[in-house]
Amino acid sequence: MPLKDPEARKAYQREYAQRNREKAYARVKEWRANNPEAVAEQNKRYAEKYPEKMRVKAIDWKYKNLEKARINNRTSAAKIRFEKPDVIKERKSAYSRKNRAVINAAVARRKAAKLLRTPAWLDAVDLAEIEFTYMWCSALRECGLDYHVDHIVPLQGETVSGLHVPWNLQILTAKENVSKRNRWSDA
């Protein structure tokens, strides 16, 4: 093997790797397994040198592996919510400050939906029962428990829309309610 000339050495190594593809691949794989710090450093240098290539590669991977990407996003977001709740709270409040009009529009939509779905035929007892459900949930929150009032059949569901009536209300943990979103299962 010509050791003196660097260009000739690189050409020889490329040719050798082509002729002995499996052997060369096995050696590289073994080296990468035995040297994770060096591999991480190489990856870091490459990412710093070619940020646009890395961005394209990441986007390409996400489109080819949509389900894995969704799972990764959910687990990493859940991990951040669990480990750094104060960071999430600050991000939400910063978003609210920057997007006050968007937040106000969403709140107005929600209130309008609730009003439209509160039937006129409810009597004073039904309205008091609704108020009691909200008061009960509020008392649970004051005790330090994280609960929400949930509409069993969502007010703004994709397939059905429920009514704002006492028998359509339930108290759920915040986690259950947020994961339910505006879905309804008749099972």
Low-pLDDT stretches are: none
Main sheet: strand order: 1-2
User: Percent of residues in beta strands?
Assistant: 5-15%
Instruction: Sum up the overall morphology in one term.
Output: elongated
Question: For the residues shown, what is the average pLDDT?
Answer: 88
Distance from N terminus to C terminus (CA atoms, Å) equals 73 Å
In N-to-C order, the SSE pattern is HHHHHHHHEEH
Proportion of residues in helical segments: over 70%
Largest sheet, in brief, is:
2 strands, antiparallel
Radius of gyration: 29 Å
The helix count comes to: 9
Structural class, from helix and strand content? mainly alpha
**How many individual β-strands?**
2
Features:
two-stranded antiparallel sheet, 2 strands, elongated, mainly alpha, 187 residues
